[in-house]
C-alpha cells in the first residue's frame, strides 16, 4: 500500500518530468503556444517547490547542502563561458 511519503516522492518525480516536458515543448513551439507552455512549466515548478517543502517539513526528503559562494561563482563562470548560441546569425 502506498503511504504519504511514497505519494509525495512520486508526485515530486512526476512534476520534475512535467517541467522537463513543458520546457522541451516550449523550445519547439512559437508565439502564443510557446507562452502557454512556459506558463504551465512555471506552474509545475511552483507545485514542485511546494511539494519539496512539504516533504522536507515532514522529514521525507533531505536536500543537498547549500553550495558555498565560491562554488556558485565557479559554476556561474563555467556556464557563462559556454553560454550563448554556438552559431551567430
Description:
With about 90 residues, the protein is an all-alpha fold. The protein has a domain at about 5-65. The chain is about 75% helix and about 0% strand. The longest helix has 27 residues, at about 30-55. It is flat and about 45 Å long. The chain starts with a helix and ends in an 8-residue tail after the last helix.
Brief rundown of the structure:
With 89 residues, the chain is mostly helical.
The largest sheet is: none
The radius of gyration computed from the alpha-carbon positions, rounded to a whole number of angstroms, is: 17 Å
Helix share, percent: over 70%
What is the straight-line distance between the termini?
Answer: 56 Å
How would the global form be characterised?
Answer: flat
Structural class of the helices, strands and pairings? mainly alpha
Count of discrete alpha- or pi-helical segments spanning 4 or more residues: 3
Query: Number of DSSP strands?
Result: 0
Q: Can you write the helix and strand succession as a string?
A: HHH
